[in-house]
Amino acid sequence: MPMETANMFNPASKVSKISHCSSMEQYKQMHDKSLKDPEAFWGEITKEFHFEEKVKGKFLDYNFDITKGKIFVRWLEGAKTNICYNCLDRHVLAGKGDQVAFYWEGNDPADAEVVTYGELLKDVCRVANVLKAKGVAKGDRVAIYMPMVKHLVVAMLAVARIGAVHSIVFGGYSADSLADRMMDAQASVLITADAVWRGPKLIALKEIADDALKLCSAKDLKVKMNLVVQHMNKVTAPQPASNGTAANGNVAKKTHFDDKGNFKVNWDPSVDVWWHEALSTVSSECDPVWMDTEDPLFMLYTSGSTGKPKGVQHTIGGYMLYTATTFKYSFDYHQGDVYFCTADIGWITGHSYVTYGPLLNGATSVLFEGVPTYPHTGRFWEIIEKYKVSKFYTAPTAIRALMKFGDEPVKKYDLSSLAVLGSVGEPINPEAWLWYYRVVGDSNVSIVDTFWQTETGGHVITPLPGATPCKPGSACFPFFGVDVALLDEEGREIKGEGEGYLVFCRPWPGMMRTVYGNHERFETTYFKKFPGFYCTGDGARRDSDGYIWVTGRIDDMLNVSGHLLSTAQVESSLVEHPSVAEAAAVARPHSIKGECLYCFVTLTEGNSFEDKLIAELKNKVRSKIGAFASPDFIQLAPGLPKTRSGKIMRRVLRKIAVGDKDFGDISTLADPSIVEKLFELRPKESKK
Ligand code: WT7
């Protein structure tokens, strides 16, 4: 092992001692095998799962070169399986029905529930039967818009059990966003909940879903059923804030609850069905539908640089092998571990590492409904102590937000159970890495900085916690089956040290297969720029020791709190406001979110730039996309810096956003004087 220095940290010995992969030699040997003989490598892994029928065709077949024809990827041709069966039945049949699948921890510490594999299976079968009774069949799309409750896991697995396709929309998205996604997917059923408390705030999911359904029916999408979980009567409402200010929740209590304290919902008996009522009338058994490995499992929408979200589609077999294997190796999962991933299931991290990866491994996890700072800033650490969590997975934005409160809220709890700490969503800055390692991990853990994307399905570049000496800020080395390259602008491969476009040379089992309903968009987005390679859209550097450092997006995307947004998507929301003629959005660094939105707006004739308009514009983005996308800054732009061909020079806007006058060459602008004007007009708050 290399000498441990301030820039190099060896795996914790308590992890390497027992790990599935415990040295760099072993990693290299396994990685080599996975590339040289994918069939032998992944074939061995398929043995751990149930396949109703074995591979009959090619184990792997693909084309990554757009100049040679259609892009396609197929793993395990001819085999049949069911991922829900592999997540649940397989374990129950092996006698693990009483093992805890999830410790559900509510928004309020008073609310908690334990769910076993056996119970999960029964509920999944019930929901599957409810869906079947409504005519949902193989290939149909079911939209899910839910809080972090066990019913969400049940819903997705029930959909998978009957061969339908789930499309989960994060519960922080607006009615417009939900409707857009439901329309694109042509979803015939929606599953939601009445509402949820997120910290002190009420999110009235059913109300938002009702609005979305209205938008859908206006566009002729016939939704057969809205299956609604009654959640509010089971949870503890937030207490009034101790500092005397009315917590958001108090206002919601007046508007959304009746005199007896019951949560109010509008009810349309032609579509709305209570979950608990529907489940009480059906059997708790339901045969799984045996699916082709390349049948779709789910789609999950992600931002695209055109502004229109794209339905990233994953298929069953490869995704199953990949999420199971990455979960096992990246977190070095062993029976007896308690694993806690703080991501919402509405994002890919939750799909792969709250639901599928852990359940495929028969793991015990914490499912947390709340937020890191409610009712106090030690909430994560309290949960880790309570359940003796050994493997913990969160995002840099959460780490940075919690770092602000100092070490004391962490040190109040016994976190000695921790062994592996994971990070995902954006490059983790070394300061946050070190705090995570020293304060949360007491310098006796392995940190895994996992790089991946909605598109990759699972970790593609990551340390292995028992093997890889880590450098804070580097995601280190490719996972098994992943063949990384860095390319220059001309598509030439950069060998050894250097920086360029991060691409992958061949398919790994968990990668997306298409963009739902638009295969051409899949091909142009990921395969057109460099024929023969999957292009991530990120830049990366390889150092002299071969470590990969992901440097961030190189397209018009920004990463707010670990979630991608496209500038085009934000701009199109802004220009919907009648006072806005043109808009440009750029990323500005933010100490907690990583990046935040800084928007420039050109107004239509006769409008003035006032606080009221700024508030309206922020609201516009919230209602078109969701609250998490709300811009931090909006500034007036009498004009935008455009080249003579009309292309907005975003690098100049990014400089203005941070108050940096080092604009570089602006001589190609149609009107260079606009840059100075924009600099003058920066809002006061942005100068801090
Ligand atoms: C983009 C994908 C994968 C789950 C969460 C986000 C950035 C993600 C890392 C990391 C550096 C990272 C990349 C990537 N990213 N993890 N460990 N180090 N960058 O999923 O919304 O599909 O975003 O997030 O820019 O392309 P996503």
- Ends distance: 45 Å
Q: What name goes with the CATH superfamily of the largest domain?
A: ANL, N-terminal domain
Shape type: globular
CATH topology of the largest domain: Rossmann fold
Fraction of residues in helix? 25-40%
Strands, total number: 31
- Beta-strand content: 15-25%
The major pleated sheet works out as: 8 strands, mixed
Bound molecules: 5'-O-[(S)-butoxy(hydroxy)phosphoryl]adenosine
Number of helices: 21
User: What top-tier CATH class of the largest domain fits best?
Assistant: Alpha Beta
Q: Give the mean pLDDT.
A: 95
Radius of gyration: 25 Å
In CATH terms, what is the architecture of the largest domain? 3-Layer(aba) Sandwich
Low-confidence stretches: none
- In the sheet with the most strands, the strands line up as 13-12-9-7-8-15-16-24
Task: Characterize the structure shown.
By secondary structure, this protein is α/β, with parallel strands linked by helices. It folds into three domains: 12-79 and 452-551, Luciferase, domain 3; 82-306 and 314-371, 3-Layer(aba) Sandwich (Rossmann fold); 563-687, GMP Synthetase, Chain A, domain 3, CATH 3.30.300. It is built from 21 helices and 31 strands. Helix 16 links the parallel strand 20 and strand 21. The longest helix is centred in the N-terminal third of the chain and has 17 residues, at 117-133. It starts with 12 loop residues before the first helix and ends in an 8-residue tail after the last helix. The structure holds 5'-O-[(S)-butoxy(hydroxy)phosphoryl]adenosine. 5'-O-[(S)-butoxy(hydroxy)phosphoryl]adenosine binds at residues 302, 348-349, 424-427, 449-454, 475, 536-538, 550, 552-553, 559, 562-564.
